[in-house]
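[job 4471] stage=fold_predict status=RUNNING
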Amino acid sequence: MADRTDARRALVLFSGGQDSTACLAWALDRYAHVETIGFDYGQRHGVELECRLHVRSALHADFPRWARKLGDDHLIDLSVLGQLSDTAMTDARAIEMNAQGLPNTFVPGRNLLFFNFAAAVAYRRGLSVLVGGMCETDFSGYPDCRDNSLRALQVAISLGLDAPMTLDTPLMWLDKAQTWALAEQLGGEPLIDLVVEHTHTCYLGDRSQRHAWGYGCGLCPACDLRRKGFNTWVNS
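[job 4471] inference complete, writing structure tokens
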């Protein structure tokens, strides 16, 4: 079989959740060298920052074909974003819709800042692809997850750096069931087990309850979406 490896070097926006783990596996399967970047912005579900390290270690130990491609991890302190935000993602409050019709888990500018900081790191590290798990199919209406927003950002970043920077969003047109299927396609049952046991997606940071689809409160929008996607996938 011909080598499908893309010679470019990538930086994955890696939170430690299901979507970013699927994106990391996708990038490792595709690119010659892959690094990861995470952001500490005072999120309620700060446990995801610990999960990031467990996922990286498991990928390195259990997937030898990817281990040689997995490079450095970068953790950026963006606590100022938490200071500027007044949302259920950073404060202990009930999750509900706001006056603009968006869930109050929306952190304005979060993904825009993530990509800009990631681009600065990528530029310094000689990486030319940024990979994110944003999605328009199963998402909460966040405007900075839209394909048009990210395509425009790609142009702005490339112009601002005077260097081509590609923003890859492999989940953009996949629903959550298809994201489970992608993980199975990329890494089989071992990757599915890794996603269930080690990733974290629950907005409330609850890892006291283990479900068939992973850990979480089981009630927040993130858990609800993950559960429905899992059930659709296993019954398809």
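[job 4471] summary: The chain has a mean pLDDT of 87.
[job 4471] exit 0
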